[in-house]
Amino acid sequence: MRTERGFTIVEMVLGSAIFLVLFGAATIALIGDQRAERVLTAQIGPEMRARDAMERLATELRMAGLRGEDRNDNGDLDDGEDVNANGRLDADWSLEDGATDRPELTFNRRIDFESPEEGACASGVYSSPVRYLLENESLVRYWTRTDPETGEATELRHIVATGITGLRFTREGTLVTVAMDLKLPPRVYKTGKRTIQTSIWLRN
After folding, report:
1. CB atoms within 10 A of CB 91
2. pLDDT at residue 150, as a whole number
3. First and final CA of the chain: distance in angstroms?
4. d(C-alpha 191, C-alpha 80), whole Å
5. Which residues share a beta bridge with 162?
6. Element (H or E) spanning 134, and its range?
7. What are 201's strand-pairing partners?
8. Close Cβ partners of 195 (under 8 Å, ≥ 6 residues apart)
9. Lower CB density within 10 Å: C or N end of the chain?
10. What is the pLDDT of residues 104-131, one digit of tens each?
11. From residue 147, how far is each of 72, 74, 104, 117, 150 by CA, in Å?
12. What percentage of the chain exceeds 90 in pLDDT?
């Protein structure tokens, strides 16, 4: 008659030790993964937000013009140039050819529109001045909104992105380059700073 033999104390101790070693290794790996994820989030989060802000700025610049409503580029409000009938020449481009590393930019954004209800459309209509600059490590957008009934103009302010320590605009002909310095935790990036940039071809 055969009797069943249980585990000896040595076998139980050995099995427990192996289990603890494997459990400890898995825990250390999990903690390492979580730390890596936090570091990655700390780096990618601010950079993604800055890149979104950069894309917004670039999109607006693609709809900007060097001359705005000033079609003959003489600096005067001539007949037929005041398309949006606001009584002023919307030609507020502030970055001259050859300018380098300027800290802010003002321009007019082209806003061609079509109104099926009224059967009206307009081409070559430009917005009031739009201005981008850096304030307290934030990319800020200013623009002017005019009340269509009263004609009263109000300057509005919007923080587009935070954690930006540098903003530079450079222009060569119809090519504008925008550079942003991002503030990152020193443990994430050796210098604590990363620069992103993009270039935009202007319409005119």
Report:
1. 21
2. 76
3. 101
4. 53
5. 138
6. strand 126-135
7. 175
8. 166, 179, 180, 181, 182
9. N
10. 999 998 886 655 554 555 566 888 899 9
11. 29, 29, 26, 21, 6
12. 34
Amino acid 60 reads: E
Q: How many residues does the chain have?
A: 204
**Which residue type occupies 122?**
A
Residue 180 near residue 48 (C-beta atoms within 8 A): no
Residues 6+ apart with CB under 8 A from 83: 69, 122, 123, 124, 125, 126
Q: Both tokens of residue 87?
A: 């009584």
* Residue in the block written with tokens 């003002």: 106
pLDDT of residue 178: 97
DSSP H or E run through 155: strand 153-162
Of 6-10, 79-83, 112-116, 184-188, give the range with the top mean pLDDT: 79-83
Cβ burial 48-72 (10 Å sphere, 16+ → b, else e): ebbbebbeebeebbebbbbbbbbee
Give Cα 31 distance to the centre of its chain.
32
How high does pLDDT run on average in the chain?
81
